Amino acid sequence: MTTVMDLSNALAGAVERVSGWMFAVHGRPRVPSTGVQWRTGLVVTANHTVEHDREVTLTGHDGRSFAASVAGRDPSLDIAVLRAVVDGVSAADVADDGDVRVGHLVMALGAGPRASAGIVSALDVGRGRHAAGDLLAVDLTLYPGFSGGPLVDVRGRVIGITTSGASRHLQCAIRATAVTRLVEADHRRRDRLDRWACDHRAGGSRGGASARSGRRGGHDDHSSRRRAAGPSGDRR
Amino acid sequence: MSALLAVEEPIPHLARIADQLRQVTVEIRSQGGSGVGAGILWAPDLVVTNAHVARGSCVGVGLADERWIEAHLVVADRRADLALFRIPRCGVAAALGDSDTLRVGALVVALGHPLGLLRTLTAGVVHALGPARPGGRRFIHADVRLAPGNSGGPLADTAGQVVGMNTMIAGGLALAIPINDVGRFVASATASTT
Lengths: 236, 194
Fold this sequence. Notes:
The complex is a heterodimer of chains A (236) and B (194).
Chain A: H1 3-19, E1 22-26, E2 33-39, E3 42-46, E4 56-60, E5 65-74, E6 79-83, E7 105-110, E8 114-122, E9 135-139, E10 150-152, E11 158-163, E12 172-175, H2 176-188, H3 190-201, H4 206-216, H5 222-228
Antiparallel strand pairs in A: 1-2, 1-4, 2-3, 3-6, 4-5, 5-6, 7-8, 7-10, 8-9, 9-12, 10-11, 11-12
Helix pairs in contact in A: 2-3
Chain B: H1 2-5, H2 10-24, E1 25-30, E2 37-43, E3 46-49, E4 58-62, E5 68-77, E6 82-86, E7 107-112, E8 120-131, E9 138-143, E10 154-156, E11 162-170, E12 173-178, H3 179-193
Antiparallel strand pairs in B: 1-2, 1-4, 2-3, 3-6, 4-5, 5-6, 7-8, 7-10, 8-9, 9-12, 10-11, 11-12
């Protein structure tokens, strides 16, 4: 009898829990997007919501503002990693997205907090140069400003980052594993990511991208070679 | 989580909530109007709905048992988009919740007559709480699919208690007047007329 009320309370509790890790990201005119502190000092958002040559500020759930800089971008996955010193905001509880199954109840959240609920509709959404397994398809509504926000399970753990920019036809989320790979790459390849940012400030040419991919070719894994084509912006 | 493992439990529970809500959701037809709106049985002799649904001082009210009764306007507030009607006593009244304790993410259901489809249930979660535009009045924003015909109908929590009155659709979201605001309207309306 109370089970559905327990579920309702669990969902509301999940929103309260996750909203502590979320920011409104002011990186474009008008509607701010959403970001999640993935690791201390590193905030993940949707790449298409952070314009080039623009100062980025974050607003926390308590209304405090923080300055942020772009640490790296992956346009092919539509992820931007921002660096910011955010006191008193803890890093997200990121779940193992390997447990996610088609039909699981999930919520997409936006800064505010705002919530939208639905189910996982497909795993392994392969789209050309994406490796199967980087994206999830979800059956829910992504409202304006939700891009870059967390996709959370009923326990309030982050299983991905939602973005309307990843696909024109599907509501998609970048799986947490793929995001973590990018964020950890930021630690290891901090200078290289800075170069990505510099390239973008300079306009990011196709030639620059191929030069980078050549530089990476020797030691990088398959997925980062795929992504190396990203900064040229030929996806869309 | 246990709530998800016991999948068979929530479904009859939701069905029970839907049955309760059907009893307290009425059809509203205004004279000369072609569309149907919804209303909530606030008390055995009172129906509350949106002012934009019920035009005129006398409207037809369709009960869940398919009886049609005449309702007479007590008071309408076009600004608040609320109207209160008196009906012959019919024996049922909605269970009211507390909209001030509603949380973002909580499951909610809406009952109404979307596109004339009578007493249809849709479900979703609370999307946000607050004004639709800066400085505006407070609404419950719900990620619930509504259509014309839902206006004036109940938005209820998982206990089956009415927490809002579905009033408009904006950007795909349901906007509902918090039931505590409706309660204040009804209290002042009945106080001024008795």
